[in-house]
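lol ok so funny story. i was supposed to be doing the assay writeup but got distracted and ended up predicting the structure for this chain instead. priorities right. anyway since i did it might as well share w the group, maybe its usefull for someone
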Amino acid sequence: MLPDWLTIVISIIGLIGTVLGVLGISGYLGERARHKAEVKNKQEDKDIEEKQAAADQRLKESVRGVFQEEVGPINKKLDNITSEINKIKADLADNTIGTVTMLRDRMKAIKDECKHEGYASTSTKANWRELYNTYKSLGGNHFKEYVDAWKEELEELPTVAPIKGRKGKATKVVPENK
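and the output, tada:
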């Protein structure tokens, strides 16, 4: 038989070992349960996010479909308007080219006529300057060296008509009637 004190010590050591074992197993099982709960919660959160994303995508597609139905006729009208504007621009470009050409022709004719007459009245010069400004504003001056030279020639002409004598020479200048 063992002495009493040894029996008590062995009993206490056994009790301590049992308590520590129970506490260790309990802690392990608690940690394991927390870990499983955390993994489960993460999976549930992920599932909720995926469901929300899918719902958001369906909503976007639904709104997009409704929007396209409502905006479709407007887009067709805008396409028609754009097409008409482009046609008008093309027509204007064609008309502008013709107008620029006619203005240049008219300016040359006026310059030639005034040069032949030997003078250009102030009103003729003013008219020619207006034609010139319109010509330039429409994008004209592809013949810049000629048109600018015509302008200088016209500006240099006197503003009063010379009176011609018997041999066609100027004998007297008469001021222009206003």
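The radius of gyration is 52 Å. The longest helix spans residues 4-117.
back to the writeup now i swear
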